[in-house]
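protien #1 (seq + structre)
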Amino acid sequence: IDVDAVTDTHVISTVSDLANGSFEAPLAPAGWFITHGIGVNLGGWVVQKDSIDLVGTLWAAADGIQSVDLNGNDAGRVEQDITTIADATYRVSFELWSNGLVQVAAGDESEEITTSGSTWTQHTFDFTADHASTLLSFESVGAGGPSGPVLDNVEVMRVLENFTLGDGGDVLDLRGLLDSVGGPHDNTAFSGGYLQFDNSGGDTTVLFDADGAAGGAYEYVPVVTLVGATLTQTDEDYYTL
């Protein structure tokens, strides 16, 4: 018996609403830092344990010019609610440096990461959302006192683990994403700098720039990662613009 492969269409219409992923707001003193305690809102992130240091140009940030030392006067935590889709899988990408133990958590899922050294290191954490909103947090859970692990460049994207290419392969529907910014629905979405497929390690990450190459207000952000699938611009059967 011959059974035709079933094509699944995956609709990607929005980017993550994570705010201030590089901690660029509010401004910290140039060449120094400012300590913020419980309840302070840092452009979307809220301090919810002891205190943190918002660091200006005291050292080089991983992205932009600012970062967060998760130990202010003592071990602290920052958190914010992000919009999610129940049962969808997400990947949190972030960078750490300095010494300490960090717990990253999303909803009921968490992971502890040991960081050390004087260079930024990228880490990822995957979780499956249970609700339409998920609380994302980063907490210093190692030694107390000042000077702990430093956090920067937090990004959130969808993850599709079973995206299939070939006969009856899946389709990535990006029309709503382009509609959201009045972007083009042809190959100028790529040449105009709105979309980019980044292939690395056998995966594909779709990058999106809300105002394209002609604008300067936005830059590429990751929208979705296709695990184990290498999708290129020429694979037009597997995506819709």
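ok now protien #2
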Amino acid sequence: YSGWACAGTALKTVQAGKPDTFLEFYTVTNDAPYWYKVWWKDGCELKGGQTEAYASNPLMEENPGYTKCQEILIDNYKRCNNGGVGGNIQAGCLVYEFKAQRKE
């Protein structure tokens, strides 16, 4: 479901201190919950003082490809060391999180 979680991430920025710009996708399939979030890490500062980034290109690469957000979430899953219950990974000032739990 990482593709659904990343849909439209090239169109809207995630901004420091503005939770309404943070991204969230949640679904339950076959009684298994999938909860994805992308948010700005509190206190994080980018070079040049930028306070926003696209989840589709958090490191501001020249040609990130259209699947960078999805690649980050999949990489987070592949690095999982807790039995698949979730975790997070940071790219620039954006935190990409997956939780295999019911929405709070």
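DSSP finds two helices and six strands in the chain.
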